[in-house]
Design a protein that fits this description.
The chain is of the alpha/beta class. It folds into 2 domains: 156 residues, Rossmann fold (3-Layer(aba) Sandwich); 103 residues, 2-Layer Sandwich (Hypothetical Protein, Haloacid Dehalogenase-like Hydrolase, Chain: A, domain 2), CATH 3.30.1240.10. It has an 8-stranded mixed sheet with strand order 5-4-3-2-1-12-13-14, sandwiched between helices. Strands 8-7-6-9-11-10 form a 6-stranded mixed sheet, sandwiched between helices. α2 packs parallel to α11. The radius of gyration is 18 Å and the shape is globular. The mean pLDDT is 96.
Length: 271
């Protein structure tokens, strides 16, 4: 029996226009009414999650969100940080040294801000920030290393061809030191070592007293793979790559065809 629903956002909960289909909202409400706990699991920072959570109209519920690809867990009752993992000073300096060797723009995320280190935000970064309802802020490396600042994750953004070269040159090095993933054609993400959506989801399920087999996870991208594998039932969206689909237990419709609602109805409401 499914007791926890772990739900990716972009390409899963959201359609291609970055909206939540009404069918998804209705199905989520039915699942919660049936006693299922909802956990949004996203690479987005918290600022890019809150407006969507409000659209779900779940203000009476204390649910949880996993943001920054597993770096932080917040409870929705007061948006308090429940648990987190952060980049070290040495990590931030190491990434800065790599950024000096590439045209990819080096960005960092703290609890509230989308940050660009030692450069003016370019058009790609500005556009990406707009998708999470914020504007990027330029900071110095010294500011990034301030002891009172928690930096959850870093991203390198560049056009697909440039990021192909970046990944070919630095992908292995970054994967040895960090949890690293090419989550989108223009985004390469780095999190603290052994930090994924799955590690945060495991911590949260244990906190709530659930077993992995009581978890259903739905996702579409490479940064969802560990989460789909952790869950007792991992469901890939119809718009996922063939590789992601091959690792899932089931496949639902696409994010343009109310795939989340279809999966909830099939595996939660009709069980």
């Amino acid at each position: 029996m499914i007791k926890l629903l772990a739900l990716d956002m972009d390409g899963t909960l959201l359609d291609n226009q970055k909206e939540i289909p009404q069918a998804h909202i209705a199905a989520i409400h039915q699942a919660i009414k049936a006693g299922v706990k909802l956990v949004l699991c996203t690479g987005r920072p918290l600022v890019g999650v809150k407006p969507y959570y409000e659209k779900l109209s779940l203000t009476q519920e204390n649910e949880y969100v996993i943001v920054d690809n597993g770096c932080a867990i917040h409870q929705t009752e007061d948006w308090k940080l429940v648990n987190w993992r952060q980049l070290s000073k040495e990590d931030i300096i190491f990434l800065d040294q790599i950024s000096k060797q590439t045209p990819a723009q080096y960005t960092l995320f703290d609890e509230e801000r989308y940050l660009v280190v030692d450069e003016e935000p370019n058009n790609l970064v500005t556009y990406d920030a707009s998708l999470v309802f914020t504007t990027p802020t330029q900071i110095s490396l010294e500011e990034a290393l301030h002891p009172d600042t928690i930096m959850f994750q870093a991203m390198f953004l560049a056009q697909p061809e440039e990021l192909d070269s970046f990944e070919a040159q630095f992908g292995d090095v970054l994967s040895q030191r960090f949890s690293a993933v090419r989550s989108q054609p223009v985004i390469f993400e780095t999190m603290p070592k052994r930090t994924t959506k799955a590690t945060a989801l495991k911590e949260l399920t244990e906190k709530l007293g659930f077993l992995p087999e009581e978890v259903m996870a739905i996702g579409d991208a490479n940064n969802d793979i560990e989460m789909l594998e952790f869950a007792g039932l991992g469901v890939a969206m119809g718009n996922a790559s063939d590789y992601v689909k091959s690792l899932a237990d089931a496949i639902t419709d696409s994010n343009e065809e109310n795939g989340v609602a279809t999966a909830i109805e099939k595996f939660i409401l009709n069980q």
